[in-house]
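Example for tutorial group B:
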């Protein structure tokens, strides 16, 4: 194994970019795979999550592709939009000191913007199968000069039903190309694709069990189903992770759990397929930047997302697929760093837990739930919540909001009282006032009406302005009698 990128034959501009990105020496998969790719051989790479697979094909393509040639020369297919954006961002960092340009194409993104980027010219295109297929069918993506095809997370693409689209894309590409297939597992369909569309591929396999045993502390806690939220809250308070991903099996569970944690005052967000694309990308970026420390996610939405220095992974639900357990806990303990993975196990999950232990080849330790004394002593532990934060998280902001609401509500009530009082003074005279007015009319006669009023009650327009309407006294008496009897 070669212990430096320089020894692999990488050009100085790319080496400079890798150094700026924090790469010190190649990982095992990079040391084994990059020389074969630079030798223009087809490869099947079976490697664990977080082993540095993006740099395997990214560095190799940037090294071999000529930025002066027209049209895209590299195409990378990914199962999710988030992974496509992430890979494109990594490629931009790797190529910052070169003349290469890259772009990403994916669903729920502006088609016009993608077309303009392709017209301006790019060296490498990263995208989801559906959108890439659309661009090829509409002749927006020129394929005649493509020299590289990368199928990243190939097993997941097949699980998500992209097989037909992937085959259509492969058939539209030149035969004389380098094909790289990266996958955690190699099911039958992937084997069939490799035999049909790859040229005597070499298989490089890095065992995933080594990572899960050596660098990640794995613990499970037995818990009753109806107490999972309470136990999770206790664990977070005890662990106090700087960054933590919490995995659930369904979108509904993600939403409910995120709401529960939000009400408890945690800075957290949800990530699943029903959330709009632009919001998912923003959520991932905010999590990477540390704007919140808890991310509740499903397996599909989080597949392929790389988070540096993730301190804790919690399996709120035991994964339905044994391989998903490896993908989940592989988010922590990356690049040789230590990590922790906690799994909440109900009575119904014991059988699935034993299957996972058999799959990874090791026993998962049973933990003892922390007691209230461990994190309830405010004299020895700093508060976990940012009570001075401007964001509307936690009980502190909720209380303040409630006080403001009461003040506003009190002002509204006071205004209503004043309004009612003013209305009472403006109402018609009471019965006593009406009686006095009637008695005055009997003695002195009614007040003279204006000309317009006289006209309205039947008088002709030639009546003088000072002329009054004569009303019979019997009519006044009837009015007075009604007032007195009411």
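The residue assignment follows.
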């Amino acid at each position: 194994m070669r212990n430096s990128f320089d020894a692999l034959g990488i050009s100085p501009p790319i080496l400079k970019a890798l150094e700026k990105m924090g790469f010190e020496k190649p990982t095992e998969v990079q040391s084994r795979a990059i020389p074969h790719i630079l030798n223009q051989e087809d490869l099947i790479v079976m490697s664990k999550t977080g082993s540095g697979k993006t740099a395997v094909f990214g560095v190799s393509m940037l090294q071999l592709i000529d930025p002066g040639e027209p049209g895209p020369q590299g195409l990378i297919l990914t199962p999710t939009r988030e992974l496509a954006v992430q890979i494109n961002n990594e490629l931009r960092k790797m190529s910052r000191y070169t003349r290469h340009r890259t772009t990403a194409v994916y669903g729920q993104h502006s088609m016009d913007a993608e077309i303009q980027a392709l017209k301006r010219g790019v060296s490498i295109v990263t995208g989801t199968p559906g959108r890439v297929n659309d661009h090829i069918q509409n002749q927006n993506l020129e394929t005649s000069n493509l020299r590289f095809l990368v199928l990243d997370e190939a097993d997941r693409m097949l699980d998500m039903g992209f097989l037909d689209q992937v085959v259509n894309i492969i058939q539209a590409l030149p035969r004389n190309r380098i094909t790289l297939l990266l996958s955690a597992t190699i099911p039958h369909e992937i084997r069939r694709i490799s035999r049909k569309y790859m040229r005597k591929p070499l298989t490089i396999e890095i065992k995933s069990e080594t990572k899960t045993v050596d660098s990640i502390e794995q613990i499970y806690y037995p818990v009753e189903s109806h107490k999972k939220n309470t136990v999770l809250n206790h664990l977070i308070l005890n662990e106090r992770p700087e960054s933590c991903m919490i995995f659930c099996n369904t979108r509904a569970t993600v939403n409910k759990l995120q709401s529960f944690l939000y009400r408890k005052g945690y800075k957290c967000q949800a990530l699943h397929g029903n959330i709009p694309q632009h919001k998912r990308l923003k959520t991932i970026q905010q999590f990477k930047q540390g704007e919140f420390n808890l991310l509740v996610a499903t397996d599909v939405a989080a597949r392929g997302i790389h988070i540096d220095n993730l301190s804790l992974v919690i399996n709120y639900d035991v994964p339905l697929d044994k391989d998903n357990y490896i993908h989940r806990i592989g988010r922590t303990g990356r690049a040789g760093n230590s990590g922790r993975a906690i799994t909440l196990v109900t009575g119904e999950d014991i059988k699935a837990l034993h299957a996972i232990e058999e799959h990874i080849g090791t026993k998962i330790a049973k933990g003892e739930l922390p007691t209230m004394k461990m994190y309830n002593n405010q004299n020895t532990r700093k508060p976990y919540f940012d009570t001075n934060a401007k964001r509307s998280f936690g009980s502190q902001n909720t209380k303040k909001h409630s006080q403001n609401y009461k003040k506003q509500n009190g002002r509204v009530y006071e205004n209503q009282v004043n309004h009612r009082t003013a209305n009472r003074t403006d109402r018609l005279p009471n019965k006593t006032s009406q009686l006095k007015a009637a008695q005055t009319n009997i003695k002195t006669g009614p007040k003279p009406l204006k000309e317009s009023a006289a006209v309205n009650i039947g008088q002709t327009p030639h009546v003088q302005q000072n002329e009054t309407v004569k009303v019979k006294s019997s009519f006044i008496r009837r009015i007075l009698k009604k007032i007195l009897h009411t």
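The mean pLDDT is 79. Compare this with the pattern of hydrophobic and polar residues in the output above.
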